[in-house]
């Protein structure tokens, strides 16, 4: 039986800082260390309980989250501490383990309860927990959990877990959520934030999720992480253009595609 971690009477964030130790990088030409983001003085600080990272595909958001998840003791294919998903062979394609070996972290204090959510592996991880009947420190899965849709199952899963202290890492949760479910996820984030002992680190492309008011919003370019306002993100601007004139927006995009 796994021992449940003792609740620590301190508010989030618990992971305060991560930084790259250049002495631990064996080869700068090998991924992920070839990413422009991971320069010698790379550092990421967490000043609020919720940190949201935005940026285009290929900038390294998922890789960074995998590395942080591995630092917290989670499998970089997804899941919680000590859990290995059924399709763990896919984790061999991930780079979180190699990145975490070159990262250093500052904790106050160190918390390793929580979960690393990856949309593509979420149900495999959940099925593993269900079928293996593991001693889940969060109380186990409902017996009919896997009968739900992806989005409904995801929300139900985390509603069961967000009441407990931990670090929760979400890699593009909107992949599993319709727009209406994204609103429900915002409510879930708010409950986690109000509880005060949940730290959330999330990467997203969804402007609706970026809009959570009490969060640090960071934009990841190919070389830097910088604070950004919602309306200054490319994602918001593009969605605004579409909403202002859907027909014209699509027509222009199709014209450019055939030019």
Automatic annotation (TrEMBL):
Under Gene3D superfamilies, the record lists:
P-loop containing nucleotide triphosphate hydrolases (3.40.50.300)
Q: What's a single GO MF annotation on this record?
A: ATP binding
Q: Which biological process terms from the Gene Ontology are attached to this UniProt entry?
A: double-strand break repair; iron ion transport
UniProt topology in membrane: Peripheral membrane protein
Every copy of the ABC transporter domain together lies at 20-247
Major subcellular location class = membrane
**What InterPro entries does its record include?**
AAA+_ATPase, ABC_transporter-like_ATP-bd, ATPase_AAA_core, P-loop_NTPase, Rad50/SbcC_AAA, Siderophore_ABC-ATPase
What this chain does, per the record? Answer: Involved in beta-(1-->2)glucan export. Transmembrane domains (TMD) form a pore in the inner membrane and the ATP-binding domain (NBD) is responsible for energy generation.
Q: Where in the cell is it found?
A: Cell membrane
Residues spanning the membrane: none
What name appears for this protein in its UniProt entry?
Answer: ATP-binding protein
Superkingdom, according to UniProt?
Answer: Bacteria
**Cellular component GO terms held in the UniProt record:** plasma membrane
- List UniProt keywords, sorted A-Z: ATP-binding, Cell membrane, Ion transport, Iron, Iron transport, Membrane, Nucleotide-binding, Transport
Q: Which organism is it from?
A: Bradyrhizobium macuxiense
């Amino acid at each position: 039986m796994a021992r449940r971690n003792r609740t620590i009477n301190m508010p989030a964030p618990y992971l305060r800082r991560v930084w790259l130790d250049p002495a631990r990088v064996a080869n700068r030409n090998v991924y992920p260390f070839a990413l422009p983001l991971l320069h010698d003085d790379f550092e990421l600080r967490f000043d609020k309980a919720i940190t949201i990272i935005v940026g285009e595909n290929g900038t390294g958001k998922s890789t960074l989250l995998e590395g942080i998840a591995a630092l917290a003791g989670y499998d970089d294919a997804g899941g919680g501490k000590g859990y290995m998903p059924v399709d763990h062979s896919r984790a061999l394609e991930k780079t979180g383990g190699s990145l975490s070996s070159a990262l250093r972290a500052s904790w106050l204090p160190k918390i390793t309860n929580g979960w690393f959510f990856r949309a593509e592996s979420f149900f495999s991880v959940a099925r593993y927990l269900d079928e293996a009947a593991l001693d889940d420190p969060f109380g186990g899965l409902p017996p009919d959990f896997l009968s739900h849709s992806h989005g409904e199952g995801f929300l139900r899963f985390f509603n069961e877990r967000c009441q407990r202290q931990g670090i929760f890492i979400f890699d593009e949760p909107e992949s599993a959520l319709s727009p209406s479910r994204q609103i429900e996820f915002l409510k879930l984030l708010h409950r986690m934030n109000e509880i005060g002992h949940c730290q959330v680190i999330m990467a997203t492309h969804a402007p609706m999720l970026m809009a959570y008011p009490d969060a640090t919003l960071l934009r990841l370019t190919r070389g830097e992480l910088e604070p950004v306002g919602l309306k200054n993100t490319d994602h918001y601007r593009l969605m605004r253009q579409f909403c202002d004139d859907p027909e014209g927006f699509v027509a222009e995009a199709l014209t450019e595609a055939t030019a």
